[in-house]
Specification:
4-stranded antiparallel β-sheet; 29 strands; 5-stranded antiparallel β-sheet; 400 residues
């Protein structure tokens, strides 16, 4: 069985409530697991659209145009970021030192996670809403896709655009492979795999239904894909074949998938070992799967088992999960780059507690897990973000 200790799951809902869970062993002898609710907190004035977690830091974004910061270890709200002028669509950490946020105002902001100052504002996509971002494993590059149907590659060291590519359709999801040598762009039911060094499509994976969620297992050799159906597909990156399916993983559409890779079996084969796969669906159910990988003559093979599930009763809109015990090794200190010129004051640092789960229903779906009293709203006057200078694009991401 994979290592399920110290896994924290956060999920946002249409009804403004931020949920937090931890995996616990309910039976030591049988190693039975349960998802234990830790808090249900009315975090925003509008629907929560994005969450991200890194070690003991949790952030959430909302249609109320704010980003909330939380300390998971102390279980308190730390402050509010109010620079964006539109719905927050994406949040992503860059190592342990920075965070990126994207919004419908067409901007990406680079934040220092020590001071929570905005270091740089990246503008692109013709001012159109940005729906997806992803950070390169090195922390030097980032990807974004927007409603203008373009893919942007950003040089985070220099704080500028590096490459722009037109897409054949609307994309709301983009992901770097863990090795950084390729990235995946989702367009409808297709996953386009681009080579980083050329910026050209090297593989197209066709799914039976539109793709809503994508993550990687076995160091990127397996794609874990959630579609507009009840199934989760495990696809071999090399062959493009489905090697395993979590059949009827949910009774409703799968909306979010997060993979936490375990250790290999000790033979050095990245196709062997275990992965923890966390999934959620439109009916508010969160499930945790233990997926065991094995190598065969034909490639990877897998077996899977649902080891825990929790019904929130809410309309979940976003989810993130991570092993909070894993130390963050930040090799990207150089990304405190020329972008460090635009300083902003920190927003209203405070200590509002993340309250324990109560029986008050979530107003989005009549669920069971919500706190009774919302926190006091934080108020701050946002400073005007500094505009980034326009630069010429480079011919390929690798030359950034």
């Amino acid at each position: 069985m994979g290592d399920f200790s110290n896994i924290h799951i956060s999920a946002g809902s249409y009804g403004h409530v931020l949920y937090g869970f931890e995996l616990k062993i309910s039976n030591e002898a049988e190693k039975e697991m349960r998802i234990e609710p830790k808090y249900a907190y009315e975090a925003h004035m509008g629907s929560i659209t994005s969450v991200a977690v890194k070690k003991d830091c949790l952030v959430s974004g909302s249609v109320d145009e704010t980003i909330k910061i939380y300390n998971l270890r102390k279980k308190v709200e730390h402050g509010t970021l109010m620079e964006h002028q539109g719905t927050i669509t994406c949040l992503a950490f860059v190592g342990d030192a920075h965070m990126l946020s994207a919004a419908e105002d067409g901007s990406i902001m680079v934040w220092d996670t020590a001071s929570w100052n905005c270091l740089k504002v990246l503008r692109g996509h013709g001012g159109s809403a940005i729906d997806g971002i992803s950070v390169h494993p090195s922390g030097r590059l980032a990807l974004s896709v927007g409603r203008d149907r373009t893919l942007h590659v950003w040089n985070l060291i220099k704080g500028r655009k590096a490459f722009v590519s037109k897409l054949k359709g609307l994309s709301r999801l983009v992901r770097w492979f863990p090795d950084g040598n390729a990235y995946a762009v989702v367009v409808g039911a297709s996953i386009l795999v681009y080579a980083t060094d050329t910026g050209e499509v090297e593989q197209t994976l066709q799914l039976p239904a539109p793709v809503h969620a994508l993550d990687f297992a076995c160091g990127g050799k397996i794609l874990i894909v959630g579609t507009n159906s009840e199934n989760v597909h495990c696809i071999d990156r090399i062959t493009g074949e489905v090697v395993h399916t979590l059949d009827k993983a949910h009774e409703a559409r799968v909306r979010h998938v997060t993979v936490i890779d375990g250790r290999t079996n000790g033979d050095g084969d990245a196709n062997s070992g275990a992965s923890v796969v966390v999934t959620s669906s439109t009916d508010g159910v969160i499930k945790v799967w233990n997926v065991m990988w094995a190598s065969t003559a034909d490639g990877a093979a897998a077996t899977s088992e649902c080891v825990a599930q929790y019904e929130t009763g809410a309309r979940l809109t976003c989810m993130a999960a991570c092993d909070v015990s894993t130390p963050v090794h930040d090799s990207h200190t150089q990304s405190r780059s020329a972008a460090a010129s635009a300083k902003h004051t920190t927003k209203n640092i405070q200590g509002t507690p993340l309250q324990d789960t109560s029986g008050t229903p979530d107003n989005s779906r009549g669920g069971k897990q919500r706190t009774g009293r919302p926190p006091a709203a934080t108020k701050a006057q946002p400073s005007r973000p500094r505009r980034s200078r326009k630069r010429k694009s480079h011919p390929s991401p690798a030359e950034a």
